[in-house]
Amino acid sequence: MLASIYLTCTQNLISMNLPVVRACVVSMFLLLFSFSNSHAQSTIKTYDKQWKVVADFVKKQLPKSALVEVKKIYALAKQENQDAQVIKSLVYMIDLQAENRDNNDLLSIADVEKELAVSKQPATSILNSLLADLYWRYYNNYRWQMYSRTQTVLFKKEDIATWGTEDFHRKISTLYLASIQEERLLQQTRLEPFNAIILKGNVRHLRPTLYDLLADRALDYFKNDERDLRKPAYAFQIDQPEAFATAEEFSRYRFPTRDSFSLQHKALLVYQKLLAFHLSDARPDALLDADIQRILFVRSKSVHPERDKLYFSALERIANKYGNLPAASQAWFFMASYHEEKANSYSPFGDTTHRFARLKARDILERILAQKDSSEGKTNSYNLLSQIKKQQLQFNVEKVNLPQQPFRALVSYRNFTQVYFRLVKQDDKIKKE
Asked: What is the pTM of this model?
């Protein structure tokens, strides 16, 4: 199992595809990075020959032999100041030792912390994000032990085995925020010189800089509900309508809170900086992607009584402003999804408010599919339209029917215009069949 997973998940560093497509890489924790800046090495080395040897050992399910070769690459990369290869080697070493080293989770954290202590930017930012993932993975593996622990104070917690849930979330949050602290440097750090260690996918333009990648990883953590299991009475809530405002207005708004550890609040702050960074982009793709993700997140967490109305208006604003631009198709798709969602509440003999909502969804989806350019929104629209047009038929009759009385049947159907029935008298042959 280990060999096949490595062959499919660790040949490249970061997936530029949609979040749902990243599952393989995320599950194996092999999210590596690439980076460059004005001080980057003049010669970028990929060590393809050496990595092929590693891949061959992994394919043969020989992790110890693969580890020996990875350590050689690590030493060579350190000697030649190839930071990307150093980090790639480090992650490989962590996972290759997962089954053969006791307390690998704790030792892996120590390995990355040791590397972090001697690193330079932008490698430092990457390692902070990597270390946050390690702590997050450790917490997920042992969370069942955390909930029964009492929070300790005035206690030097050098051993993370003594930490409680708040300690872990505080540490993980700090590391993720540190990973995007050097905003200007990371925003100027392009990815092109490091194609050998990036799984480009087909939407690379949505994550054009190292800042985008690291911010996206931080948001994956900040958007989760884990800390909400234990929240203070003054916990931060997204109840401001400004959370649904335009990207420009949203990026300037101040979200006050007393809850300094709120993950939702931190997510909003990261989205603000991310959107502000892309507001002046010549090409709006990265801005639209981040903005739509922000709107979806806010709707999922907002407690505003008009959140659905604000949500749809925010999507409609993007769709109308950017029209048929492929990057805007995702906004149109979510508008169609909203109509489809509301269509399910239609009741012929009850609430008929959304009687024609599904037709509205179909019209939007067909409009998206008429576009020539491919996009995430177009792919999602094809799948949703197929689901809407899918034919369904269900036929139920009473188990017992009295002679000379009406023989009732309940027919539930979808996307049919006519249904034909034939009554067949049951005999012994049919019973046997």
From this structure: 0.82
Q: How many CA atoms are closer than 13 Å to the CA of 304, on its beta-carbon side? A: 17
Helix (H) or strand (E) holding 409: strand 409-414
Q: Can you name the residues that pair with 96 across neighbouring β-strands? A: none
- Say whether pLDDT at 423 is over 90: no
For 292, other C-beta atoms within 10 Å of its C-beta total: 22
In this structure, are residues 302 and 294 in contact, taking their beta carbons and an 8 Å threshold?
no
pLDDT in tens, 83-122: 889 999 998 999 899 888 888 889 999 999 999 999 999 8
d(CA 222, CA 235): 15
Question: Are 377 and 385 spatial neighbours (Cβ–Cβ below 8 Å)?
Answer: no
Strand partners, 411: 395
Two structure tokens written together for 47: 């060590």
User: Torsions phi, psi of 393, nearest 5?
Assistant: -145, 130
Residues 6+ apart with CB under 8 A from 56: none
Tokens of 37: 């800046």
- The predicted structure's pLDDT at residue 35: 38
Burial class (CB in 10 A: 0-12, 13-18, 19+), 360: middle
Contact present, 266 and 222 (Cβ < 8 Å): yes
* C-alpha–C-alpha distance, residues 3 and 17, integer Å: 23
CA distance 391 to 279: 44
Q: Taking 50 as the threshold, does the pLDDT of residue 27 lie above it?
A: no
Longest dimension (CA), the chain: 94
Cis peptide before 305 (omega within 30 of 0): no
Give one DSSP letter per residue of 17-63, joined into a string.
Answer: S-GGGGHHHHHTT--------TT--SS----HHHHHHHHHHHHTT-H
- Poorest-pLDDT segment among 193-202, 207-216, 232-241, 344-353: 193-202
Q: In the numeric block, which tokens belong to residue 66?
A: 């693969």
Residue type, 51: W
CA pair distance 299, 413, nearest whole angstrom: 32
Distances (CA, A) of 327 to 201, 287, 290, 292, 377: 16, 9, 11, 10, 8
Burial class (CB in 10 A: 0-12, 13-18, 19+), 136: buried
Q: Is 18 exposed, middle or buried (CB count within 10 Å of its CB: 0-12, 13-18, 19+)?
A: middle
Distance (Å, rounded) from C-alpha 392 to C-alpha 425?
A: 26
